[in-house]
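REQUEST FORM: STRUCTURE PREDICTION
Request ID: SP-0412
Submitted by: Lab K.M.
Chain count: 1
Length (residues): 191
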Amino acid sequence: MKLFCLIIAFFVLTSSVAEISAQQSDRDRGIDLYKQGKDAQAIAVLEKVAKQKEFNDDSEIWNFLGLSYINSDDSKKAQKALEKAVKLQPENSIYRANLAYVYLLTRKIDKSQNEAEKALQLDANNVFAYYLIGTMNLWEGKLDDALTNVEKIFPINIGFAQAYMLKSDVLIATLGNVFRAAQVSRKRSNF
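STATUS: Completed
RESULT:
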């Protein structure tokens, strides 16, 4: 009888371990699919995993699900997923910057600014947060502030390509302002 009970206990234990391992591999597979650029497949796997009780509070799943939604042009679902990731782990600078990004995509500038600033408070080396704030400053015509933020990126990560593009946009906007001012000045002197 003891042997029978031990065999049953072993069977239950190994099947539980196998089930947990399969669920864990689905979690990792979903994240890997996102990293491979297979967003639709990542969404299918991560949505399924996020509904499971043992993973519902896994902020990493919600973050990658949100990023997959962003890449699939579903900002509404991305926002909900990233808000949940931040709610579960509010001290994560990366999650806050990702949420700031989706707010920026949906033109919620104040919310985006707030989240990006919180991301920088948590990690002063978060180049993506500097990039987002610089982008918002550019959109608002605050070119000096935009340039200041983009310049903060280079000592941290000289290879952050988006920073060069943003700096170029800021410099072109600045040059445009100089030309506009020169035209206005010429028109006034002709009267």
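NOTES: The two ends are 109 Å apart (CA to CA).
Reviewed by: T.R.
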